[in-house]
Amino acid sequence: MKTPALNEMYWLVKREFWEHRGGFLWTPVIVGGVFLLLNLMGIIAGEVLGGHFNGHANFIGNNMHLFDRALTGADANKIGAGLDIMMFSTSALVSIVLGFVVFFYFLGALYDDRRDRSLLFWKSLPLSDSATVLSKVVAGTILAPVIAVICGVLTGIGMLLLFAVTLSFHGIGVWQLLTYAHPFRVTANLIGAIPLYTLWALPATGWLLLCSAWARSKPFLWAVALPVAVGLVLWWFNLLGGRIMGGNWYWHDVCGRILLSVFPGGWIGPQHYADLGGTVDHTMDFLSLANAYSVMGTPSFWIGAVAGLALLAGAIWLRRWRDDN
Amino acid sequence: MSTNANTVVSARGLSKRYKNAAALDNVSFEIQPGRIVGLIGPNGAGKTTALKAILGLTDFQGELSVLGLDPRKQRGKLMEQVCFIADVAVLPRWIRVREAVDFVANVHPRFDRKKCEAFLARTKLQPEQRVKQMSKGMIVQLHLALVMAIDARLLVLDEPTLGLDILYRKQFYQSLLEDYFDENKTIIVTTHQVEEVEHILTDLMFIRDGRIVLDADMDAVGERFAELMVGADRTAEARALKPIDERQVFGKSIFLFDGVARAQLEALGEIRRPSVSDLFVATMKGTYA
Predict the structure, then answer these.
(1) pLDDT band per the 50, 70, 90 thresholds, residue B267
(2) Are both B37 and B85 inside the same structural domain?
(3) In chain B, count of helices (H) and strands (E)?
(4) Which residue of A87, A103, B132, B287 sits 20 to 30 Å from the alpha carbon of A61, by its own alpha carbon?
(5) Is residue B48 part of a domain?
(6) What is the ipTM of this complex?
(7) How far B58 CA sits from the closest chain A CA (Å)?
């Protein structure tokens, strides 16, 4: 039995999906498909030119180097890790695309319907502005990444199968090699990271939605130019010898967070990787959920989330009172 | 004056300023249930601002109660009982007929899906059709089907037929009267196409420069205003009665009088009930000058 509020949220999110089916669904599907196609082309080119798997052509965007690396180490762990990284890497590509989709989705979410005046239709329905804005947050930082993960995992599995089939032509019992990989673990890691993403993205979600609700025109320019201009002013003051605020702190923890947090994986810094040993063996540990969630132990993570919620409250207020003319 | 408990809209001292121009200037009025009110005024007179205030889309000074609710604070609750069609073509361009019906059916507690589907069956609209593939007239048909299936107490129409051809316009008002309007519902309509609504209105409200310059029901309008056609020989006598407007047709003069006794006028010539558009033009003289 669904409560009315949940039912309302379900339909609001569904509406977002209807409107943005192209960005949320077709974009990751097409990216995954193109990725598989590129790899297939690489394999075929390799077969024709080299006749041996070491001769696979390195197309832009294909995974041959990872694959070759996976096969150079003889022990099963390394092969397994290599295959897992390969699966992660397909998801990484889809994730980058997801970041762009979500960025522009939020920028338009509270702006496009004001521009084409369909706002007046939505406002003629008994829906609260908080529910409307919240539904866009859910669509952008839960629904879209869920779809992206599914597409990324399917693409990764598709690629594993592609390689398995190719290698079996060469008499390598690759079906057995594949058992060294951990597709379920990789999938679980990716799905498990979605709540982290939702929280991590909050500063950007809030800022972009605020700009979207506020701008009378060109929300992109406001969203990007404003924080960059502030950064330049800070930099200039520091240049003059003033010590107002650390410039690096601003670029990294303010500007970066409110603009780039919609890109998944921003929580894993290069430092973590080195701390863990920095070799292939440690890659799975590095990408594990426990490691990812360790970012929740930092105060800046929670400060960012709270700031994001405040920005969202501002976006809701603007949505309520911003006139369409 | 105490407000009737059933009063649909009650405004007192409503004011709204944009930068330095007053869109609404201390306006007071009441609208009772079962009425069709025409809110009529020139461009920029404050019609849309008044409607936006009623719908809780804009802030304002003064007191305003719509169905007993404050549109500024209780907008969510209010919109269960209020529908509006703001101008043609505000339906989102990407939405399909099926999606629009599904969505409204699931978020509006007073929406009757069967009714809506029955209205749609009378049109050429297809479930999979998107708004961007429709003509303006078809978009209005869809919007009207959605709105008429909602059991609301107040329907607000802001220029609902702008840019439609005559067939769609006639059909629009006909559907509203035949399939929607009853004594429990109230309709407020603004339009420039006065001729098309004047025979369905029960009340008339003229607004000019943010003020209500006429607020009366149609019977009262008929009693108060009279159009008099006078031969050339008696125009001086007619002018002495201070008409609010005068024009010439086929060598005769037509005068418009406000609150002059019938008997006095009948002695001079033929009396007619003035059309709303003539009344409007006379009242708004000099607006754009």
Answers:
(1) confident
(2) yes
(3) 11, 13
(4) A103
(5) yes
(6) 0.89
(7) 6
